């Protein structure tokens, strides 16, 4: 725990960017659920079984077997984390001038698609851009928007980029019926579907809870069904699979797998480790199994829901319905007096840290960055602060402290001022940008 004076000094030192705070200065760390989950006793035991051979490690084959068993893909290409997989698949499939439609962008995913020469087009349903809409599947693709992109760009849509759940929309799920329809549409136009499977088990839980005809299936069965409507996936093993580091690309086409494995030896490592130690691959293999257990998912999403219910009852504006991995504060509604050019979500995350030492992060105009062609700031409709819950780490009491702190800031919201950016990195600026408070 820290004093208000310590937090003020730490925040100033960090340029009002929660990514630049030292962990020792943070009380409850809700920056991200990436690599911050607690590994189980079984995963730690697995770490002792690391086969650290350069080539052909046993742990690679165990991971490959579990990727086939739980997701159903044929070929495994291991990577150091999710963005390694995004880099490789983008370079294999995208040519200059190609178009990649998807259900809302993700920061690293879109950047790798752009760097490979592609242009991302958002084809998510309109409800996803409205924080107050309680649509049960705000991650769904608008099939008319998708078909228009496919029809207008024949031969230039290498794949449809589908995320489950959609992080930037608030952890919102896609329905199984929509996933199937997207796959059928892609096939009709000779394209592919590549799934961002980072939170596919959380997505499966929502399908079990909300989609007609799915309540009798296990999370594991629904995960496999979702993956069956895609040609491959990228995975950050730091999320659903409960590991501290790791990721992979998995595909069904032999030629794509061969090209990816070849690029892997240039950018990640040999094709049987791809940047992970043997022990890390073992932890991922075991984590995959644990992530699809219904009881685990009930506890995990139940905790997120608990925090959301509290904030909602107190009238704090949050993205509805509550998503899978965190609570997203609606900074536009929270701070109506701060215009988007003054970075309201960034300012709100800073104010929350100052109040209690709870670390959240911005998901709005700073994260959206600049248009790749015009260089203008992109102005997303959603201006959010994400309170991301690590898996198996915090107690209900920590959720209570968090909710109370958010409410304290809400009561004093008129006092929160906007920021101005004083340092802007060229790529993925939200990680390293620095700010100063605006004066009156
Ligand atoms: C975290 C994340 C990624 C990138 O994975 P890293 O392991 O952080 O590189 C990709 N997509 C989504 C939806 C994510 O949440």
Please describe what this structure looks like.
52% of the residues are buried. A 5-stranded mixed beta sheet has the order 2-8-7-6-5, with helices on both faces. A 3-stranded antiparallel beta sheet has the order 9-12-11. It has a two-stranded parallel ribbon with strand order 1-10. Helix content is 41%, strand content 13%. The protein has helices at 4-13, 41-47, 58-70, 82-93, 107-115, 143-152, 176-188, 200-210, 219-228, 254-267, 278-291, 294-313, 331-334, 344-356, 365-368, 396-411, and strands at residues 28-29, 75-79, 99-102, 119-122, 160-163, 193-196, 232-236, 247-251, 326-330, 358-359, 361-363, 384-388, 419-423, 434-437. Helix 7 links the parallel strand 5 and strand 6. The longest helix is centred in the C-terminal third of the chain and has 20 residues, at 294-313. The chain is α/β, with parallel strands linked by helices and 440 residues long. Helix 3 (58-70) runs parallel beside helix 11 and helix 14 (344-356) crosses helix 16. It folds into 2 domains: 4-33 and 294-437, Aspartate Aminotransferase, domain 1 (Alpha-Beta Complex), CATH 3.90.1150.10; 41-291, Aspartate Aminotransferase, domain 2, CATH 3.40.640.10. The chain has 16 helices and 14 strands. The structure holds pyridoxal-5'-phosphate (PLP).
């Amino acid at each position: 725990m820290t004093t208000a004076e310590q937090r003020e000094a730490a925040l100033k030192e960090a340029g009002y960017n929660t990514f630049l705070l030292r962990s020792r200065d943070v009380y409850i760390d809700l920056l991200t659920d990436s690599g911050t989950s607690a590994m189980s006793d079984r995963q730690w035991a697995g770490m002792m079984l690391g086969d650290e051979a350069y080539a052909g490690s046993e742990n690679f084959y165990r991971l490959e077997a579990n990727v086939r068993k739980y997701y159903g893909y044929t070929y495994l290409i291991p990577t150091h984390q999710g963005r390694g997989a995004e880099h490789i698949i983008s370079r294999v499939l995208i040519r200059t001038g190609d178009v990649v439609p998807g259900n809302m962008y993700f920061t690293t995913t879109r950047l790798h698609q752009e760097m490979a020469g592609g242009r991302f087009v958002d084809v998510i349903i309109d409800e996803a851009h409205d924080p107050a809409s309680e649509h049960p599947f705000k991650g769904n693709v608008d099939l008319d928007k998708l078909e228009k992109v496919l029809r207008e760009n024949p031969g230039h849509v290498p794949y449809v980029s589908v995320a489950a759940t959609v992080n930037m929309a608030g952890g919102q799920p896609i329905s199984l019926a929509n996933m199937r329809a997207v796959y059928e549409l892609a096939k009709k136009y000779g394209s592919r579907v590549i799934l961002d499977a980072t939170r596919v088990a959380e997505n499966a839980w929502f399908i079990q809870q909300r989609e007609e005809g799915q309540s009798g299936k296990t999370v594991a069965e629904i995960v496999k069904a979702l993956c069956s409507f895609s040609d491959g996936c990228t995975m950050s093993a730091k999320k659903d699979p409960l590991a501290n580091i790791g990721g992979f690309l998995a595909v069904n086409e032999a030629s794509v797998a061969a090209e990816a494995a070849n690029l892997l030896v240039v950018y990640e490592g040999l094709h049987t480790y791809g940047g992970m130690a043997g022990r890390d691959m073992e932890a991922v293999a075991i984590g995959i199994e644990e992530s699809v257990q219904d009881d685990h998912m009930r506890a995990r999403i139940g905790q997120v829901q608990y925090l959301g219910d509290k904030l909602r009852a107190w009238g704090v504006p949050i993205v509805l319905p509550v998503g899978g991995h965190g609570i997203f504060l609606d900074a536009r509604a929270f701070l109506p007096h701060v215009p988007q050019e003054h970075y309201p979500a960034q300012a709100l995350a800073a104010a929350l840290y100052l109040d209690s030492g709870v670390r959240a992060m911005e998901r709005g105009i700073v994260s959206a960055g600049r248009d790749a062609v015009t260089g203008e700031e992109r102005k997303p409709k959603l201006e959010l602060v994400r309170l991301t819950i690590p898996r198996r780490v915090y107690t209900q009491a920590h959720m209570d402290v968090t909710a109370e702190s958010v409410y304290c800031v809400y009561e004093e919201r008129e006092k929160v001022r906007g920021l101005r950016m004083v340092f802007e990195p060229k790529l993925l600026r939200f990680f390293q940008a620095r700010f100063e408070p605006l004066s009156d």
